[in-house]
Specification:
It comes from Sphingomonas astaxanthinifaciens DSM 22298. 41% of the residues lie in helices and 16% in strands. With 336 residues, it is an alpha/beta fold. It folds into two domains: 201 residues, NAD(P)-binding Rossmann-like Domain (Rossmann fold, 3-Layer(aba) Sandwich), CATH 3.40.50.720; 93 residues, UDP-galactose 4-epimerase, domain 1 (Alpha-Beta Complex). The strands form four sheets. Strands 3-2-1-4-5-6-11 form a seven-stranded parallel β-sheet, sandwiched between helices. The N and C termini lie far apart (51 Å). Bound molecules: nicotinamide-adenine-dinucleotide (NAD) and galactose-uridine-5'-diphosphate (GDU).
Length: 336
């Protein structure tokens, strides 16, 4: 069976660009829409068309869907920084929820029947027990989590009412870079732990701040479930196949390994891989950080037959670090 065109929104960004690579590698025709607010042209392979547009522009999206003959959408575009969502919630509801509403409207009008949505562990808030399965009550503790949960609900209601199905993938902490070195995390003003730590390791920063050492965890720092971006990208390809194979079925799946790693454990592993310690500055808690988030991933494995290939923490760190070194060399060459 020939593979129909897939639209990847936010495909010039970190996770979206890895999904584009996974789709392209698997022989899917792909088109990217990105407004480049946080993505880069270089993240999109030359063979993949990149259309610079805003997903909140329903008319533009309708034209693109029609002209490109799109059969399914992987929707990554959005704003992603939790503390920013607290200081500017109106923008987060607009760029995440309202823009998704526009995109879904365009998809419904153009008869696109499969929608795969980037959701987040932030929809769970701060659950008291881990691992977290998909039946855990969703009680976001910040506007970012709410903006995503509202989008999920919109998709659920639309799938019940119209001839469309959806997959919501709730990512835990995404980390690492393409094992072949073709993409990685680029954005300026990084806030994610491993990205920040790798920037410190290559000399772009003086140190890493450790946000909180008094959490109720064994070493006092927050625990997260770090998933390699290439394993997550592969889950998207499997999810797309499932949506097309079973058009009446929708699903919501956690994406993580089911393994918790503390901030200090992550930094220890980085020091080991790097061979030189990165300076740590112990500081107060960051607002809105739940003590621990670890995925129960049984449904992802059973529903999609997902088999992670890059779960080793050192493998995640090596890929992130070698990407960061390459970025640093490129930037140094540009400045010279
Ligand atoms: N990074 C994580 O750990 C993580 C965890 C859970 C969920 N997610 C979700 O995954 C998705 C991708 O995240 P990422 O880390 O790759 O972020 P990213 O910022 O690297 O990618 C998002 C991309 O969307 C584009 N974009 C933003 N608003 C747009 C709009 N209105 N129209 C068109 N393009 C727009 C940006 O330019 C960027 O290229 C997001 O929806 C995010 O909420 C990320
Ligand atoms: O410089 C830093 C950066 C982070 N941290 C700590 O490291 C942990 C992970 O923080 P990240 O900023 O890397 O990631 P978050 O857990 O805050 O959030 C990420 O994962 C969430 C789901 O788990 C959401 O999806 C969100 O979009 C995504 O950014 C947190 O305890 C944080 O306090 C530090 O100590 N120092």
């Amino acid at each position: 069976m020939s593979k129909p065109p897939v639209l990847v929104t936010g495909g010039a960004g970190y996770i979206g660009s890895h999904a584009v690579l996974a789709l392209h590698d698997a022989g899917w025709p792909v088109v990217v829409v990105d407004n480049l607010s946080n993505g880069t042209r270089e993240a999109v392979p030359d063979a993949v068309p990149l259309i610079e547009a805003d997903i909140g522009d329903a008319a533009a999206m309708e034209t693109i869907l029609q002209e490109q003959g799109v059969a399914a959408i992987m929707h990554f575009a959005g704003s992603i920084v939790v503390p920013e969502s607290v200081t500017d919630p109106h923008f987060y509801y607009r760029n995440n929820t309202v823009a998704t509403h526009a995109l879904v409207g365009a998809a419904l009008k153009q008869g696109v029947r499969h929608l795969l949505f980037s959701s987040t562990a932030a929809t769970y808030g701060a659950p008291e027990t881990v691992p977290i399965d998909e039946d855990t009550p969703t009680r976001p503790i910040n506007p970012y989590g709410w903006s995503k949960l509202m989008s999920e609900q919109m998709l659920r209601d639309c799938a019940a009412a119209y001839d469309v199905n959806f997959g919501a993938l709730r990512y835990f902490n995404v980390a690492g870079a393409d094992p072949k070195g073709r993409s990685g995390q680029v954005g300026k003003g990084a806030t994610h732990l491993l990205k920040v730590a790798c920037e410190a390791a290559v000399g772009k920063r003086t140190h890493v701040d450790v946000f909180g050492t008094d959490y109720p965890t064994p070493d006092g720092t927050c625990i997260r479930d770090y998933i390699h971006v290439a394993d997550l990208a592969n889950a998207h390809v499997l999810a797309l196949e499932a949506l097309i194979a079973e058009p009446k079925d929708s699903f919501t799946l956690n994406c993580g390994y089911g393994r918790g790693t503390s901030v200090l454990e992550m930094l220890d592993a980085l020091d080991r891989v790097n061979g030189t310690p990165v300076k740590r500055v112990m500081g107060p808690r960051r607002a809105g950080d739940p003590p621990q988030l670890v995925a129960a991933n049984r449904r992802l494995v059973e529903r999609l037959g997902w088999q992670p290939r890059f779960a080793d923490t050192d493998v995640i760190i090596e890929s992130a670090l070698s990407w960061e070194r390459r970025l640093y060399q490129k930037e140094a060459a540009t400045c010279a």
